[in-house]
Amino acid sequence: MKITYDPRYNIGYITLQEKTAQVETIHISEDMNIDIAPDGTVYGIELLNANEQLGRKNGGVLTVVNEALGKMEEIKLG
Fold it and tell me: What is the span of the domain harbouring residue 16?
């Protein structure tokens, strides 16, 4: 999984899998689109107005938790 953020356009993208098939983008809300293949595989989630969704309310910090390893990492956004 990979999370990218473009502060110029305030767009985040969560890549769940690299695209190996033609995908359809489904508009979920004003702030979210999902890229999905015909077989139902979700390839990624696009976050519009990303700073609000990725932690701006938490002081601009994104917290990533690996529950299997019991580890947490905080990443400063923007």
Answer: 2-76
